[in-house]
Amino acid sequence: MSRDRLWAIFLILIAAYLYYYTYGFIPEAAKYPRILLVMMVFLSLIMLFNSSKAKTGESSDENPWRAIITFLISLGYYGLIFLFSFLPATLIFLPVLMYVMGARDWKIILVTTVAVEVFIYFIFVLQLKVVMPSGLVM
After folding, report:
1. Cα(46)–Cα(52) distance, rounded to whole angstroms?
2. What number is the average pLDDT over the span 26-47?
3. At what angle do helices 106-120 and 86-100 cross, to 10 degrees?
4. pLDDT band at residue 67 under the 50/70/90 scheme
5. Which of 70, 116, 120, 71 minimizes the C-alpha distance to 97?
């Protein structure tokens, strides 16, 4: 059994347990976690289906250093948040990470970065009134 298949089954079981656990919540409070858990099961089923279609013995052309580089970039992101605050740090982090992950079209990188920034600001700052971390410089 492939790792993807095992992970998919594990995630489905975790989601089922957590969904059952939400029955102890107030109905209004349980709505959002249940939606997320249903989405988690749906995505896990897609992963399960795709893992059964995949050929065994496929070699991955993924660069093994990519995970280490991503981790180091994430540490840098943490430092940027500490220095410049959350939104400017995210504005720097996203394009760099997308480039490391293989995105080369600057239009896609720009549109995605702006869309994520606007989404984060609208949902978390304006709607949920979350106070974003402020940096030393800002």
Report:
1. 10
2. 93
3. 150
4. confident
5. 70
Rounded Cα distance between 99 and 129, Å, is 31
Which residue is listed with tokens 């093994």?
64
Helix (H) or strand (E) holding 67: helix 65-84
Domain ranges within the chain, ordered by starting residue: 3-53, 65-127
Cβ proximity of 33 and 22 under 8 Å: yes
Largest Cα span, the chain: 52
Report which of 82, 93, 84, 136 is spatially closest to residue 116, judged by C-alpha positions: 93
Instruction: Please give the mean pLDDT across all residues of the chain.
Output: 89
Please return the burial class of 86, using the count of CB atoms within 10 Å of its CB with bins 0-12, 13-18 and 19+.
buried
Q: CA 4 to CA 47: how far, in whole Å?
A: 7
Q: How many CB atoms lie within 10 A of CB 94?
A: 19
* Distance (Å, whole) CA 88 – CA 80: 8
- What's the CA gap between 131 and 91, in Å, rounded? 17
pLDDT at position 50 is 87
Residue 45 · residue 94 · CB < 8 Å:
no
